[in-house]
Amino acid sequence: MPKRLFAHLFTGNARARFPAADMQRIAAAIAVGETCHAGEICFAVEGALHWREVLRGTQARTRALDAFGRLRVWDTAANNGVLVYLLLADQRIEIVADRGLAGLVSDEQWRGVCLLMEERLRAGEYADGVVAGIEAVGDLLALHFPQEPGGVDEDELPNQPVFL
């Protein structure tokens, strides 16, 4: 617990690791990916938890589920929204997929995306890691919710990443 608490107390602001240019690059990756599938991707990053949350034992998964609801990622016509959540202090990625993807994408496939991203984060390649993860999620969505030829891509969720 002390090591995790220390990490959360001294992890800098998420905006320092994700300057505006990187956030625009991530938004562009989401937009490009959504031309190939009918799903919706949302990226949210949180620098650190309040020390009380760390002492309570709050985990990244709990925060991701909360963000999934607050950001209304569940609010898509085909129930195919996906939240990619990053908790910087823990260097932890969580993916929360709406019920339309249940039984289509396995936990192992989602975990593979997380591992890909976590590897890049450990190397200090924050934006590259997120973009690679967004692309991998997009590939999975394209398998199950391909964009119909000539179809109109209705953007149901904002592509702009979110700081929590």
UniProtKB/TrEMBL annotation:
Coiled-coil region list: none
Domain of life, source organism: Bacteria
Protein name: TPM domain-containing protein
Gene3D superfamilies given in the database record: 3.10.310.50
Organism in which the protein naturally occurs: Thermomonas aquatica
UniProt domain TPM: residue ranges: 56-139
